[in-house]
Design goal:
The protein has one domain. 67% of the residues lie in helices and 0% in strands.
Length: 126
């Protein structure tokens, strides 16, 4: 399908931007969809993995990467089902790193955080 260009972080980010733009066309610019939240989580975690010490253990890194789609889907499900506010979704989509993403998660209500915990969301790598 994509081949070697899929390994290029710039190509991956460009594709994610296209996903955000396409998803945003259907909604108010102030309210990104839950899918965009999941895509941001996926991109930030993938970027974090590329800089993590897991680089020396390719099998472990691959195992974590294989779980990313399920992690993304869990976040999208929790966001959709517990109706995260436009402000929280915007904050999460605009997060530049995992620290900012986690800070945005603190804006969730207690019930929304519990729903996220139940979804099995693993923490992004440090």
């Amino acid at each position: 399908m994509l081949g070697a260009e899929a390994e290029n972080p710039l190509v991956v980010r460009a594709l994610l931007v296209l996903v955000f733009v396409a998803g945003g066309c259907k909604r108010n610019a102030d309210a990104p969809p839950c899918g965009a939240v999941g895509a941001t989580f996926f991109a930030l975690t993938k970027d974090g993995l590329s800089h993590a010490t897991l680089d020396t253990d390719h099998d472990l890194r691959r195992a974590v990467e294989d779980q990313l789609p399920a992690m993304r889907d869990s976040i999208v499900h929790a966001c959709t089902e517990s109706k995260w506010s436009a402000a929280v979704r915007k904050c999460l989509v605009e997060a530049k790193d995992h620290v900012a993403f986690q800070a945005c998660e603190q804006q969730l209500t207690d019930a929304q955080r519990q729903a996220l915990d139940r979804s099995g969301e693993p923490q992004a790598p440090q």
